Amino acid sequence: MSTDLHTVDTTGGTTMRMGKRVAVAGSVLALGGFIAGLTPAQAAPSGAQAIKYHFVFDKKTNTDSRLILVKTQPNKPAQKVASWRAGSGTTTDSCKKNKGWLPNGTYEIKRYNTNYNGSLIKGYAFQLSDKRCKPGGTLRDELFIHSEMKKDGNQGNTEATRWDGNSDYKSAGCIKLKPSAIRSVYKAAKNVGFPRTLKVVS
């Protein structure tokens, strides 16, 4: 995982140097031999290791839905850790590109950016994987969880960089939060190791 000051890449060790790859491979082989010699009770993960986190986007309306951080653990009910108001799209037709809210399903959270510098999306922006609205349907791409701010996270003077109120929860199909909320989401994600999964439901 690449974890520089501004971006967290959750897609894996693509930046690992070859020497480190060899060292890690050797460690994995050694660890594999060690695990093979353990009894099932010794090899079983502890409760702490079995804890996992993911996000859920619960769609209600285009401007008043919920982004939820969820904790899961074997043999226990899922637990809501935190929740934030969020919006998505300007219509509930998920097949309308750049207008419909996100299609239901599971997404990969590919990167957590805090200084993203896109043409419209800037600052805190968490990149999602692509998703078709239905089998053979419209491919929804360039998807993010984002807000309205400048690259440095401060408020700007233009509409795209300035949060004016509840109407700004509308988006071009992404998930959108107010600036203070998306900072809170980033902090919560960091505290639990940057979850890689988002589940969209309605």
UniProtKB/TrEMBL annotation:
One of its GO terms (molecular function) is transferase activity. The keyword Zinc-finger does not apply. Keywords: Cell shape, Cell wall biogenesis/degradation, Peptidoglycan synthesis, Transferase. It comes from the Bacteria. Transmembrane segments: none annotated. GO terms for biological process: cell wall organization; peptidoglycan biosynthetic process; regulation of cell shape. Pathway: Cell wall biogenesis; peptidoglycan biosynthesis. Residues 79-190 form the L,D-TPase catalytic domain. The keyword Transferase applies. This is L,D-TPase catalytic domain-containing protein. It comes from Streptomyces ipomoeae.
